[in-house]
Design a protein that fits this description.
By secondary structure, the chain is α+β, with helices and mostly antiparallel strands. It has seven helices and ten strands. About 40% of the residues are buried.
Length: about 290
């Protein structure tokens, strides 16, 4: 498919959404909370009677881009993957409130016919009633079937290196075999995450986990290891997706302390010894 660069680079969007208890709980289940139903720290994000909201839910409160499904933009959705994601949290996300997101495209890079295109986007999320800034999210879609359209090839944002030493903190996180089936109910119905035939057709062994589910898994690990499950201490997370996660794998989260409140992050799929999330940058209140 041929990407319509001029149409896509000028795209903007807005969306309002309510952070309902059901949506917050479903998201938490989709990124793996509740594996131990007696873990009181995790139950705080699963019990509507006194509900806390996972910070990384901000990633699905942004605008759901119609350019992914509108054929006028020329995006090949079947071969699209998340390349990177970022979150800056200005205050805990309030349950039961409506939020408003405004989105824009920041740049589109043509990496060539074999490597595809990279589309960088950003969302600003505010309280819909008061206008108070809640979060800023960003990301990159790798559109593997859309390279070679003749657009600019750079510059690409630089990645943050992970220290070449032993991590300061680690956590092994099992994922459920049905994780992708649960997470897709939070809004991303790309058939790549449920259709085995399509997954094999585009080069995967079986359906892969959503990139943003991996982001949420890493975010929960950060919340657990560094913030004692307190969302008010979670400030920022940015990372790159370096390989797909298959539902059912155990993910090892490694954190490297750089300075007070700042860490580098890397995640590895243990059974394959493959780095799946890399170049992570974490900011918390210690």
């Amino acid at each position: 498919m041929t990407l319509d660069y001029d149409r896509l680079i000028s795209w903007t969007g807005t969306r309002e959404a309510e952070v309902t208890a059901d949506a917050a709980i479903l998201y938490a289940l989709g990124v793996g909370l509740g594996a131990d139903p007696t873990d009181r720290a995790e139950l705080a994000f699963l019990d509507e009677r006194a509900l806390s909201v996972l910070p990384t839910i901000a990633m699905i409160l942004g605008v759901r881009p119609d350019y992914l499904t509108d054929p006028a933009y020329g995006v090949d959705l079947k071969t699209m993957l998340h390349g990177e994601s970022g979150l800056v949290l200005h205050r805990p996300i309030p349950p039961g409130r409506r939020v408003k997101a405004e989105a824009r495209i920041e740049r589109i890079l043509d990496r060539g016919a074999e490597k595809g295109a990279a589309t960088y986007f950003a969302n600003t999320i505010v309280d819909a009633e008061t206008g108070t800034l809640i979060a800023e999210t960003s990301g990159c879609f790798i559109m593997r079937g859309n390279g070679g359209f003749g657009g600019p090839s750079g510059p690409a944002p630089a990645s943050a290196p992970v220290p070449d030493r032993a991590p300061d903190l680690s956590l092994d996180i099992p994922t459920l075999p049905q994780a992708g089936l649960i997470y897709r109910l939070s809004g991303d119905r790309n058939p790549l995450h449920i259709d085995p035939d399509l997954a094999r057709k585009v080069g995967f062994q079986r359906p892969i986990l959503h990139g943003l589910a991996g982001f949420g898994i890493a975010g929960h690990g950060v919340l657990k290891l560094l913030c004692d499950h307190d969302p008010a201490r979670f400030k920022a997370l940015r990372l790159r997706y370096s390989a797909p996660i298959y539902p059912g794998e155990t993910i090892r989260l490694d954190l490297f302390r750089l300075q007070p409140g700042h860490y580098a992050l890397r995640c590895t799929a243990l059974g394959r010894d493959v780095v799946v999330l890399n170049n992570g940058q974490v900011e918390v209140v210690e």
